Amino acid sequence: MYVFENIDLTSTKKLMIRISWLFTMICGLMYLVNLVVPFLQSFDTRFGIATYSFGFGHPAQFALTAIVFSVLRIFFSLKDSEHMPYIYLILNFGLVFVAGRSTSIGFYLCLLILAIIFPYVKRIPISFVVVLGIVFLWLSWGRIMSQFMGDPDEARGLLLRTSIKIAQDNFPFGAGLGMFGSNAARVHYSPYFSKYNLDGVWGLTKENPHFATDSYWAMIIGELGFLGVICMLILFGLVIAGISMHLKNEKSFTKVIVLLPFIYALLTSPVDTVMVSKSIIIVMFAILYMCLYIKKTNEKRGWDIILR
């Protein structure tokens, strides 16, 4: 963060808003045209409709981008005391729904609820946070259960369940780096896939290990063991605490919005690919952008007060 702290990002607000609208309008137009003249490649079928990634490698990456743009628009509204962009948020909800990721849809609905109440309350009640958590779990429960208790031939769920066995068999440190769930374990096909009978599962075979890196927590649990999981959770806690400390003089709503992309990545990490894909860069830069925007905005307001 300190590398970029001298960059003034307050002048980029209009540009970011235009880019966000451009993203939403282009994707929305592509979907409408596709209804008449099919040209988009369907990823799968969810909720009775075909899902699309709109040129992204995976619908989860597309959904993340739509969520980050929505978070940025809410952030601008809160920081600069402007009206919430409800029309934009609803349009982006349509895009997230078309992506078909139940966890993303659940998270976005919670985001919409937050955007509605932000202008009318001074702080978020704990009871409201609990309600949001229940809504998210309810909408994501099917996806969560399919990972932990679902199809025995589903690669991501198998990776996660097998990683727990590996951590138990290699307590407390796990199998070691490059042995399970990581790119190194895929490129140099790990013997652990054969040892735990995963080498016959489609997407996890030696010839086609396409899904071998599909679960972030499978990699952490399998390679670093339960001790590594504890260390990672502490690290994530320190990251959240560090960002909160950097924003200690900001309103609680602003802190929540800045942290939302990271919270989304954490919440969906057991069931989606955000943490193990290049999309995590979007999360990092979104948080960095908002922190720097806050810093420069506060500096300018301070100078305005002095000059008066």
UniProtKB/TrEMBL annotation:
Coiled-coil region list = none
InterPro entries, per the entry: WaaL-like
Q: Does the keyword Plastid apply?
A: no
Keyword Glycoprotein attached: no
Q: Which UniProt keywords apply?
A: Membrane, Transmembrane, Transmembrane helix
Membrane-crossing residues? 21-40, 60-76, 88-118, 124-141, 216-240, 252-269, 275-294
PANTHER family from the UniProt entry: LIPOPOLYSACCHARIDE BIOSYNTHESIS PROTEIN PA4999-RELATED, TEICHURONIC ACID BIOSYNTHESIS PROTEIN TUAE
What name appears for this protein in its UniProt entry?
A: O-Antigen polymerase family protein
Q: Which organism is the protein's source?
A: Listeria fleischmannii FSL S10-1203
High-level lineage: Bacteria, Bacillati, Bacillota, Bacilli, Bacillales
